[in-house]
Amino acid sequence: MKITPAYTAPILSSTQSKVNVETYEQSVDRYNEGKHLEALHLLLDHLNPEFRTKYGNTDGTEFHIPHGSILVNITVRDGRVLIEADFLQLPEKGRVAMLRQVADLNINRLMLPRFRKQGDRLKMEYGCALSQSHPHKLYFVLRNICHIGDRYDDEFCTKFGAKRCYEPRITPYPEEEAGRIYEAVQQACRETLDVVKEYETERKYGYAWNVVDTALYKISYFAHPQGQLTNDLEKAIDDMDKELPVAELVAKGKAFLEKLLAMPREEMADNLYFIDTLVSTKRRSSLNNVQENMKDVYQEATEAIQAENYERAAVRMLYKFYEMYFYNDVQDDLNAVAARALSRSAGKPVEEASEILYEALDNIMEGELDADDDESLENLTGAAAEAMAGAVGQMQQMAAAMESQVADMQTKMQEAMMRGDMAEYMRLATEFQMKMMEQAMGKKSND
Question: Hey, what long-range contacts does 103-107 have (CB within 8 A, 24 or more apart)?
C-alpha cells in the first residue's frame, strides 16, 4: 500500500454514548433507600434520557421500548417487575432445528432471562420482586435480552424463515445517503481487494490481514448497518481472529468482501436504516481506556516512523482507529480528533499519512483533545500558564481514572454475570457501591 484508502464520512455525525454514569449512581442510591420504582426510572434515564417519557405510561409502571428489531416490555405490578420481549413466530418447516438452537441460546447465552414458548410464539422474559430489582441486575437482564433478541431474530428469519412478532420501527436512510453508502462500500471493497492482491504477491500476509480487518471495521464505521448485514459483518470480524493460518484468515476475509461487493443496491438498502437502541452493544469510551488500548500501537508506530517504515505505521494506526469505533461509543472530543485525522490522511502517500495519523495518536495519548483550550493556554504567560496547564491536566487525569474504574468494575461484573458466578457478582456489586459512596463523599467535601 503506497497510498492510503479513501475516507467516507459516517452516516452518524456523533458516536457518543447516551449513557449517564451520574444517573446510574443516583439509581443505586434510590434503590438502597428503598425507592425501588424511582430507581428503575433512573436506570432507564441512565440508558437514554428520552425513553422513559417517550415509551412509558404516565405513572411510570409500563414501558414498551424498541431496541433494534425487538420491543422490550417492562411492567411493574403488584410489587413485581416483569421484563419480556416477543422474539419470533416459529415457522411451519424447520421449527425443530430452530428450537434446538433456541435451547442452546437458553443454556449458553441467556443468563437470568429465559425463552418461553406460547403456542407458535417464542418470547424472552424475566421477573422478580421490585424489592430485588437492583440496578446492576436489571441492567444486565436488559442487556442480555436486547443483544440476544436483536442479533438472533434477523439470523433465524433468514436461516429458518421465522416470522417477526413485532415490526421494527425504522427510519430508512434518505435515498441519496443510501446511495452514497452503497458506493462507498463498493469502493472500500475494491480498494482493499487490490491492496491484498499486492500483499499476497509479496507474501506479506500480516499486512494483508490488517487491511482486510480495517476494511470491515471501516464499513461498520461509516455505514452503521442494521439487520442481517450487521450480523454478517460482525461474524466476518470474529472470523478474522480465529486460530487459523494467517493466509487462510485473509482468504476468508477476501471472500466476505467479494460477497459484499456483489450485493445488489436494493439488498443493501434494506439493511440501512436508523433505529432506537436501549442498550448499546458497544462500551462507553473513556480517554483512559482508549489510551490503554492504543499503548502498544503507539510504541509500534513510533518505532516504525523512526525506522522510516511509514507503510507499517500507517497500516497499524488506521487499523487501531477504526477498531476503536467498532468496539466503543466514542465520545465527541475524541471522535473529532480521530475523524479529522482519518479524513486528512486519506488518499495520501503513506509517509504523509503516517505523520497526520501519528500526530492525532500522540494528541490522544497526551490527552490533548481540545485545540481551543490549548490555544487559550498559549495566551497565558510564564508561571500562570504552567499552573493552569498543570491544573487542567490533573483534573483530566482524575476524571479519566474515575471513569476507568467505573468502566472496569462494570466489565468485571458483567463477566461474572455471564459466567453465572453470582457470588463474585455480588462481591463486585458491593465493592462498586462502596466506590461510588467514596467518590460521592469526595465530591461533597470538595464542594
Answer: 105/148, 105/152
Q: How far apart are the two ends of the chain, measured CA to CA in Å?
A: 55
Single pTM value for the model: 0.78
| Tens digits of residue pLDDT in 300-358 | 999 999 999 999 999 999 999 999 999 999 999 999 999 999 999 999 999 999 999 99
Main-chain dihedrals φ then ψ at residue 99, nearest 5 degrees: -65, -30
Closest by Cα among 181, 320, 196, 178 to 255:
196
What's the grid cell of residue 205?
500476509
Write the single-letter amino acid at 425.
Answer: Y
Q: State the cell numbers at 246.
A: 494467517
C-alpha cell of 130?
421490585
| Cα–Cα distance, 123 to 84 (Å, whole number) | 7
| 206 within 8 A of 246, measured Cβ to Cβ | yes
Buried b (16+ CB within 10 A) or exposed e, 326-341: bebbbbeebbbbbbeb
Unique residue bearing C-alpha cell 438498502: 269
Q: Any residues with CB less than 8 A from the CB of 186 and at least 6 apart, and which?
A: 261
Query: Checking DSSP bridges between strand 62-67 and strand 70-77, what pairing results, if any?
Result: antiparallel
Which residues, listed in sequence order, are joined to residue 122 by a DSSP beta bridge? Answer: 88, 117
